[in-house]
Amino acid sequence: xxxxxxxxxxxxxxxxxxxxxxxxxxxxxxxxxxxxxxxxxxxxxxxxxxxxxxxxxxxxxxxxxxxxxxxxxxxxxxxxxxxxxxxxxxxxxxxxxxxxxxxxxxxxxxxxxxxxxxxxxxxxxxxxxxxxxxxxxxxxxxxxxxxxxxxxxxxxxxxxxxxxxxxxxxxxxxxxxxxxxxxxxxxxxxxxxxxxxxxxxxxxxxxxxxxxxxxxxxxxxxxxxxxxxxxxxxxxxxxxxxxxxxxxxxxxxxxxxxxxxxxxxxxxxxxxxxxxxxxxxxxxxxxxxxxxxxxxxxxxxxxxxxxxxxxxxxxxxxxxxxxxxxxxxxxxxxxxxxxxxxxxxxxxxxxxxxxxxxxxxxxxxxxxxxxxxxxxxxxxxxxxxxxxxxxxxxxxxxxxxxxxxxxxxxxxxxxxxxxxxxxxxxxxxxx
Length: 431
Ligand SMILES: *[C@@H]1O[C@H](CO)[C@@H](O)[C@H](O)[C@H]1NC(C)=O
Ligand SMILES: *[C@@H]1O[C@H](CO)[C@@H](O)[C@H](O)[C@H]1NC(C)=O
Ligand SMILES: *[C@@H]1O[C@H](CO)[C@@H](O)[C@H](O)[C@H]1NC(C)=O
Ligand SMILES: *[C@@H]1O[C@H](CO)[C@@H](O)[C@H](O)[C@H]1NC(C)=O
Ligand SMILES: *[C@@H]1O[C@H](CO)[C@@H](O)[C@H](O)[C@H]1NC(C)=O
Prior knowledge:
The protein is of the alpha/beta class and about 425 residues long. It has helices spanning about 5-10, 15, 25-50, 50-55, 135-140, 155-165, 225-230, 275-290, 335-355, 370, 405-430, and strands at about 85-90, 120-125, 145-150, 175, 185-190, 195-200, 205-210, 215-225, 235-240, 250-255, 255-260, 300, 360-365. InterPro entries: TBL, TBL_C, TBL_N. It is a single-pass membrane protein. GO terms for molecular function: O-acetyltransferase activity.
């Protein structure tokens, strides 16, 4: 299908003057055809966005949508933006550790002597379309008067830092945090009245550390983590993420009783693997959001970002020394990575249906496949000085800045633009 040009729909004067009795019905029929096409495309895109395995089906011929005049003119493609490959991008990176002060120490790989720089010079190329590089002006335009929350672990925080660096081309935010705890940072972009916040919640549900050295946590699978559930009601966009912490020692609780544990070596407590807790934690999280009174925001699930330890596990000399992305045919999702992703998708699918009944929108920010292909994007040993004694000596979990995590903002903006087209068109055409 061809690009549909908007001038016809705008009812432009010159065409009215030349309109004869013959062309009138033809135009009318064309108009109706266009309206039907638009609504079909919008609905299809909407359902495509819902769940990853539906993406994998070959999509129809349609490629471009009308872009209402109020929006920038980048065509919005309907394609599976999350399946593709990394291709060279000599123009990247879009910031450095000297232009952006929001690169935290552990992600400042250049400062700690990472010798190679090619890992910054890639962009994501979906198989069936182009994914535009993040445009900070466009993003802030869409976010004017709105608010965005990142809820989850340190990878979510990593994402927010990346976003602050990308947005710094337009504006620096001011710190409007309610606490000194840097896990609960709140930033405001004054000229756009846009607020961005992180909520630290590595299990998404209530959890409590029980011993300080072993890092054993009690995880209360059926209890909301009120540190964020009581705060997000006012937010327009909420990005949920977790994963890595479920691979650690945990004692699971339900109805305030121990139901089992993973790697906890407590006497008489049955082994229960992370799969159980992970699934329940997502169930509880989505329930918290769906049942939140007066919440009208859009919820994104940013799917699990795989780590890349090779030559050993994380605390036994494992490292990540590659300097190039994988091609999509060189590796695939398997083992824990696959299971972490699959459970997320299953729980998301269930929740999305429930949410829809309440008029709430859930969207999948499915970064897993793209990040699986980036073993080269982690700090490895360049997240600290060599003599420093840190827990995660080789960090193959977080992402260097600048680096591949910057692409998450490309994805997010693309999804927001689609949202915007949808809601603008809805008002425009009463779909
Ligand atoms: C930035 O990275 C360079 C190496 O590329 C390093 O020498 C410098 O100390 C870093 N600066 C900051 C502020 O992190
Ligand atoms: C800023 O945005 C908030 C919503 O996030 C809104 O309540 C408030 O009225 C806005 N302020 C201005 C000055 O537009
Ligand atoms: C574990 O179970 C055994 C047998 O039921 C009991 O004798 C023992 O006291 C229990 N240990 C703990 C720590 O509860
Ligand atoms: C992967 O695909 C590329 C072409 O895109 C090809 O050159 C390469 O040989 C393939 N590698 C494997 C392991 O199949
Ligand atoms: C590193 O720190 C840990 C605890 O902080 C300590 O137990 C260990 O001995 C230290 N290792 C070295 C080589 O200093």
